[in-house]
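#lab-general

N.A. 3:47 PM
ok so I finally got the sequence cleaned up, no stray characters, all 110 residues accounted for. can someone with queue access submit it? mine expired

B.Y. 3:52 PM
send it over

N.A. 3:53 PM
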Amino acid sequence: MDLFDQKNNNKSPAPSAPLAERVRPKSLDEFVGQQHLIAPGKVLRQAIESDRLVSMIFWGPPGVGKTTLARIIAGVTKSEFFAISAVTSGVKEVRKIIEQADFNRTKLGK
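B.Y. 4:20 PM
back already:
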């Protein structure tokens, strides 16, 4: 399963899934923290709800909600998401994703 598989974003995890996965927030209303950005009426929330996002990089230590917020955004918007890890990815992978995103935008209108 892709990290940002929009079809599975709102499914409940299996009972055997890790606790962290079972309690992961599934909506902006459930997400805790960063209220200066995602509270109703704030800049990021408005961009998400109007599906007018720009490229973003979420940075921070493990466990602060980067992946959770990205999954929520992927489920709410029509934007296409590419997940990479700075630990395991290199310049080649980043260039490939940029090329694919450019193709999708210019040729497919996504």
